## 1
Amino acid sequence: MPRVLIVDDESAVRESLRMILKGECEVHTAEDVDSALRTIAELSPDLVLLDVVMPGRNGLELLGELRARELETPVIVLTASNTVSIAVQAMKLGAADFITKPFEVDALRIKVRQLLDRRQLEQEVLRLRDEVSERQQLGSLVGRSPVMREVFRTVERIARAEATVLISGESGTGKELVARAIHDLGRHADGPFVAVNCGAIPRELIESELFGHERGAFTGATDLRIGRFEAAAGGTLLLDEIGELEPSVQVKLLRALQERVVERLGSSASIGFDARVVAATNRDLEQEVAAGRFRSDLYYRVNVVPIHVPPLRERREDVALLANTFIGRMAERRGEAAGQSIRLSRAALAALEGYAWPGNVRELENAIEHGLALCETGGIELEHLPIAIRRTGRAEALREDWRQGRLTFEDALSRFETEILREALERADWNQTRAASNLSITRRVLKLKMDRFGIEPPS
Ligand SMILES: Nc1ncnc2c1ncn2[C@@H]1O[C@H](COP(=O)(O)OP(=O)(O)OP(=O)(O)O)[C@@H](O)[C@H]1O
Ligand SMILES: [Mg+2]
């Protein structure tokens, strides 16, 4: 129950206010400003009803004190109807509202209710904001970008429901981890987590993989086989790469999801399943539907709760956190103490943050592994990273030097030109003819520029 403090020197007023409010809140009283301030410090009430004219220090002084102490307790000021100017003064000092005496019981109740409701909402918002700003992890997923926090929030919100979830996102963005987080936070956490990669199983086998088969259902079916739907009983079934399914399998899947039953191949007995179904895809399923490759009824059946995991290049704020998380995890795996964990140099981090990450988080994980394998004890430097990222790093460094005013315009241009020539040469394995042709310049011009900028093949 919200706490309300009544401050008035007349006990009759205190008692009548107590009677009016007692059903809706916990009522406390004080008869002067000093004891009111003590009670506020002790109880931090949600609302104060404050008489202005009192012997000793008056109500306005209390308002001043609250302000000086930066307390945001809302205050309703009680004034006699002939002292409206005092009410105005009180409002200027930060009172939330005022009521003139003698007050109407209903009007008073409504004002109190409104302020308490607003206060509760504000506190709820603050609490959520705190929780969210701290949350950089969900299961084994980490992320601090607003988009990933939104993903975390959605996962938490829907994990305990039964609705089918469709997780979309480019390869390597973390879709499988999201599915696992849904499982771990859901009601089926104690059950199995079964993942089927619909794209990796040959088309002749996918049906028996999903639904199982009876012995002798087809040539080669020498034994009874339990399908993944059944295997996931009491747990979660992840239909990964669902966009790869053949139309004939799509029909069967739709039926299974709608009726919550499956039939093993070679049998007409319906077996109920109680697994939670989560689907994932790196294709744009809506586009697949439009192109006639994916059934729209199945799409709607699966896409009850959509979760999109954005590509890493759209959430560069996550790169440093992810990179350091991977360094920590890999060190742990090698049995090193977390304390002596390896650092990323500034140039290396700048390169990681500037890179486009076509392979998303998986590529970042690999880049860190690469860096850890090459670096000595000190830390991961730019030169320990894969070549494509190193290139970004050099471009980043150039941009930074330019921003900091360390380069003239001419120098910036020649550094940039050097970068482009070097990259073309690297791509062509330092074959100058090929590099020149890719740059649409003659080999002679390329050679001249290489001499001018001092570009030499690595020894
Ligand atoms: N937010 C994250 N925090 C920590 N690790 C992550 C995160 N996202 C992805 N990873 C790691 O990156 C790798 C790729 O993730 P995952 O397999 O979940 O991607 P995916 O979207 O399912 O990829 P694909 O479409 O290729 O199957 C995994 O090793 C995973 O642990
Ligand atoms: Mg996956």
## 2
Amino acid sequence: MSENIDTTKAVEIADGVYWIGFYDKGAGFHCNPYLIVDGDEAVLIEPGSVPHFPMVLSKLCRLIPFEKITKILVSHQDPDLCAGIPKFEELVYGCGGKLEIVTHSRASVLIAHYGIRSPFYQVDQNDWKLTLKSGRELTFIFSPYLHFPGAFMTYDSKTKILFSGDLFGAFSFDWNLYANEYYTEAMKAFHENYMPGNRILRAAMDKLDSFDISMIASQHGSIINRDVKKYIDTLRDLDCGDYVFTPGQD
Ligand SMILES: [Fe+2]
Ligand SMILES: [Fe+2]
């Protein structure tokens, strides 16, 4: 890690939006949970796994009383972002709060297997948007098969941040909170392995052209806070689905 940012604390990446992950030394696959604080409510995004729970909790507990968290938003069903949901539910319900799990209907049938107790807010059944109490709007951008059939990205109208789920993530042992000059190659390697093909990836990138994006906050790798268009164009043109060509398996 080469930047001068104290990642032992939550990092405010935009007004009222916090990165609440941790520096996972030695891991090539960093996970990034986020928190949006909006007036007297908060949205927890991609909260994380069971082993990551204590570190995420240590950030979260200094930011907001647990009962203010009204939504947990997850871009798909993988354990690295969802397995800790029941633990976060205990905090919120234990403090007298109530939660909804915001996700796609295809993910909700799988997330139920983590043993959660909250109702789902299914983005595909709610016109692909969610309006918070303040009027702030979160818009959901369907990114099917990247890498799950019900995957989606979330655009925050207030900060213009795109919470991109696994898209724009990266494998890298030299992790930084914000993308540096090496990030493009790390991002490409991740997508070549994880995403199924250029036609599908291109379709999702084309949808982003109509959004004014200030920053891309992925669930893995680094936050892209400059040259956003360059990274979108890189993925638009990327060939992926590399495992199709695994020697002896093709
Ligand atoms: Fe995933
Ligand atoms: Fe992931």
